[in-house]
Structures are given as structure tokens and as C-alpha cells.
Automatic annotation (TrEMBL):
InterPro entries attached to this UniProt entry: ADH-like_C, ADH-like_N, ADH_Zn_CS, CAD-like, ER, GroES-like_sf, NAD(P)-bd_dom_sf
Upper classification of the organism: Eukaryota, Viridiplantae, Streptophyta, Embryophyta, Tracheophyta
Gene3D superfamilies named among the record's database cross-references: Medium-chain alcohol dehydrogenases, catalytic domain, NAD(P)-binding Rossmann-like Domain
Example GO biological process: lignin biosynthetic process
Cross-referenced PANTHER family: ALDEHYDE REDUCTASE
Domain of life: Eukaryota
Name under which the protein is recorded: cinnamyl-alcohol dehydrogenase
Protein family: Belongs to the zinc-containing alcohol dehydrogenase family.
GO MF annotations in UniProt: cinnamyl-alcohol dehydrogenase activity; zinc ion binding
Keywords: Lignin biosynthesis, Metal-binding, NADP, Oxidoreductase, Zinc
Pathway: Aromatic compound metabolism; phenylpropanoid biosynthesis
Length: 361
């Protein structure tokens, strides 16, 4: 690995253009700073955001880009002022690796809402280098943006919690939606959605999955423990469920109408948008006025909430449902994710893929 004073060469799998195709790429990471933690990547989950970014759905992608923001690894080196971690610890890194530490969100410990946030990839670090993500042999991160993986959680199991898990936990906590007995809807049963079902069920909610097809009905009810299942195109089923839900977590990653889902909410119900959609969504105002309903959004969770959701999953015995693949399968995994063919999160076994041995450009 080298020493604190050297720039280490790592191998990642990078997209070079908006085809989003990943291939081996060598680059250096910065010398280990006083508060830096160098992590040998063990596993990294594949989030739909990785597709949005690699394929430039948001119009701001820079290449070469090494995606991956559900990173679990082993600490191999720490800077002299790192107090929380030491070599050998199993740790996690998520979507954010920097913030200003001075603004209102930073002082309120919701640093994900800092306007100077630094993304774990497709961004520029304080030293002017591009940030690169977790589909790589190693990543270097300031200790503030590292969490310890608690005992009792397998590293591959922990990976999806670092984005998908905290993304559902945070709004349920923030909006006061943790009480048992609430009726929740999960719109889109993918990586984020399946964690939504599991976390909401663990909070004692009655959970309805709202899906684009009937294909996942049996698994949603039998394997994930959902209480009800609606196919969004089934008008009769949707009408029968009108005014029944306290909240809906909307994870659909493409443009879609909001009104069918607003109609499912009770008085004061909340539609919580999660999907990254680069086109305006629309609804007519009576759909929210006549029922005092809210449309809101939420972005991952804070570092504190990330630690909390990891422990929540240990305490409740919650696991993610994953398909573990090697790095040389990552492009097929991305294609399958885009065509809605995964139950429910791919996790790349990075350390088991010997990526340092691959010829890299
Ligand atoms: N706000 C935040 O902090 C975060 C946002 N995200 C965003 O949330 C969205 C969901 O992420 P993730 O759960 O990883 O994605 P997945 O692809 O795993 O799941 C999305 C689900 O939406 C449904 N869906 C409906 N239409 C489509 C379509 N045309 N293509 C694909 N899926 C469709 C499918 O469920 P079904 O079969 O049930 O219809 C699918 O499983 C993405 O936009 C992602 O960028 C992700 C993490 C954090
Ligand atoms: O997967 C996590 C990131 C989500 C995300 C949310 C909003 C946005 O504009 C992004 O670029 C990413
Ligand atoms: Zn994500
Ligand atoms: Zn800030």
C-alpha cells in the first residue's frame, strides 16, 4: 500500500463516456492527510444513481468516472489525527465525502444538505482532484464521512444500507413516521424500495407495495413481508386503496404521474420523492389541497443516521436481499438493474475480483 507520504495507485472500473460502460482504470489517490482514512474496498453496492451518473442523465457527468457509493472495506492506513478508526476496522463510506462544516445544515448535523457537499465520485475534492468511488481497489476518505460497520452485520449485507437503507430511514425519522401502526406505501420495489419495506415493517407499519407490474407480488408479500400489493396500472385496485396511506416513499427513477399516488394518501399524508428525475413532475393543486397532503423529497441521510440505520438493522435482525457479483460482471449488472431485473440490490465483491490484476487504461 505504501506510506502516508506517497500517492497510492489504485485500480478502479471507470465509465469513459455516456454509454456508461465501465472498464479498468488506474489512478492515484492523494497522500494520506491528517484526518484521512485509506480503505481497501471489500464490497460495493450498485445503486440506480450509478446509472444516472455513468450515463449522464443529469447532464453533469465527468469522465473517467469510477462510480460506487455503497462502499464497505477494511481500513489499511490512517492519518495521525484520526481518532475513530484504526487499521483492520471494517468501515463504510456512502454518497458524501466532504462538506463545509460551517453552514446551517452542517452545524445541524445534516451535512448531506450542505450546498458545498462533496460527492464520493463525479466531484472535485478540496485538493482539486476528481473524487472516485467504490468500484475500486481502495478509496481515501476524511474520517467524518466514514462509519464503523457494527459487529453482527456481514460486510456485503452492510453495503446497501449505506445508501438505500439510510435513504428510507432518514425521512421516516425526520417526518415523524416511525410510530407503529402507520400505513406506508413503497412505490417502486427496487434497491431503495425493498429496504423501505423492510425498515417500515420493522417499525411496525402496515406496508403496501405499489409496483408497475404484478411480477414481484409473491416475493413482496412472502419474502419481504409486505401487507398489501397494488399494481399501479390496475385502476380498480388503486381506487379501492384511495385515502388509505399515511405516506408513500416514491423510488421510481423515471418520469411518472404523481396524481394516482396522491390519491392513495389520507388527510395530511406525505408523498416523499426519492427518484432522481431530470424532468418536471406535475399535479393539479386540488390533489394536495383537498386533504392537506404534502409532496416532499429527501436525500440520503446524515452520517449520524447512517450509523443509526446500521445499528437498527443489527437490532431488528434486518438484512438486505442482494445478489453478489464479481467486478467483471458489473456492466451486465448495470444493464440488468436498468431493465428492472434484480432482486433487489447487486453488490460487487470487489476484493474477491482481483481487480489489480486486470490490464488498465
Ligand atoms: N433521494 C436519495 O437520496 C436517493 C435517491 N436514489 C434514487 O432513487 C431511485 C431508485 O433507486 P434504486 O432503488 O437504486 O433503483 P432500482 O432500479 O433498484 O429500483 C427502482 C424501481 O422503480 C420501479 N420502476 C418503475 N419504472 C421503472 C423504469 N422505467 N425503470 C426502472 N425502474 C422502474 C421498479 O419497481 P417495480 O418493478 O416495483 O415497478 C424498480 O425496481 C433512483 O432514481 C436513484 O437515483 C437512490 C438512492 C438515494
Ligand atoms: O444514490 C444517492 C444519490 C442520490 C441523488 C439524489 C439527488 C441528486 O441530484 C443526485 O445527483 C443524486
Ligand atoms: Zn445511492
Ligand atoms: Zn455546509
Amino acid at each position: 500500500m505504501g506510506s502516508l507520504a506517497t500517492e497510492k495507485t489504485v485500480t478502479g472500473w471507470a465509465a469513459r463516456d455516456a454509454t456508461g460502460h465501465l472498464s479498468p482504470y488506474n489512478y492515484t489517490i492523494r497522500k494520506t492527510g491528517p484526518e484521512d482514512v485509506v480503505v481497501k474496498v471489500l464490497y460495493c453496492g450498485i445503486c440506480h444513481t450509478d446509472i444516472h451518473q455513468a450515463k449522464n442523465h443529469l447532464g453533469a457527468s465527468k469522465y473517467p468516472m469510477v462510480p460506487g457509493h455503497e462502499v464497505v472495506g477494511e481500513v489499511v492506513e490512517v492519518g495521525p489525527e484520526v481518532t475513530k478508526y484504526r487499521a483492520g476496522d471494517v468501515v463504510g463510506v456512502g454518497v458524501i465525502v466532504g462538506c463545509c462544516r460551517e453552514c446551517h445544515p452542517c452545524k445541524a448535523n445534516v451535512e448531506q444538505y450542505c450546498n458545498k457537499r462533496i460527492w464520493s465520485y463525479n466531484d472535485v475534492y478540496t485538493d482539486g482532484r476528481p473524487t472516485q468511488g467504490g468500484f475500486a481497489s481502495a478509496i481515501i476518505v476524511d474520517q467524518k464521512f466514514v462509519v464503523k460497520i457494527p459487529a453482527g452485520l456481514a460486510p456485503e449485507q452492510a453495503a446497501p444500507l449505506l445508501c438505500a437503507g439510510v435513504t428510507v430511514y432518514s425521512p421516516l425519522k425526520h417526518f415523524g413516521l416511525m410510530s407503529p401502526g402507520l400505513r406506508g406505501g413503497i412505490l417502486g420495489l427496487g434497491g431503495v424500495g425493498h429496504m423501505g419495506v423492510k425498515v417500515a415493517k420493522s417499525m411496525g407499519h402496515h406496508v403496501t407495495v405499489i409496483s408497475s407490474s404484478g411480477k414481484k407480488r409473491a416475493e413482496a408479500m412472502d419474502d419481504l413481508g409486505a401487507d398489501a400489493y397494488l399494481v399501479s396500472s390496475d385502476a380498480a385496485e388503486m381506487a379501492a386503496a384511495a385515502d388509505s396511506l399515511d405516506y408513500i416513499i416514491d423510488t421510481v427513477p423515471v418520469h411518472h404521474p404523481l396524481e394516482p399516488y396522491l390519491a392513495l394518501l389520507k388527510l395530511d399524508g406525505k408523498l416523499i420523492l426519492m427518484g432522481v428525475i431530470n424532468q418536471p413532475l406535475s399535479f393539479i393543486s386540488p390533489m394536495v389541497m383537498l386533504g392537506r397532503k404534502s409532496i416532499t423529497g429527501s436525500f440520503i441521510g446524515s452520517m449520524a443516521e447512517t450509523e443509526e440505520v446500521l445499528q437498527f438493522c443489527v437490532d431488528k435482525g434486518l438484512t438486505s436481499q442482494i445478489e453478489v457479483v464479481k467486478m467483471d460482471y458489473v456492466n451486465q449488472a448495470l444493464e440488468r438493474l436498468e431493465r428492472n431485473d434484480v432482486r433487489y440490490r447487486f453488490v460487487v465483491d470487489v476484493a474477491g475480483s482481483n481487480i489489480d490484476d486486470a490490464p488498465a487504461a
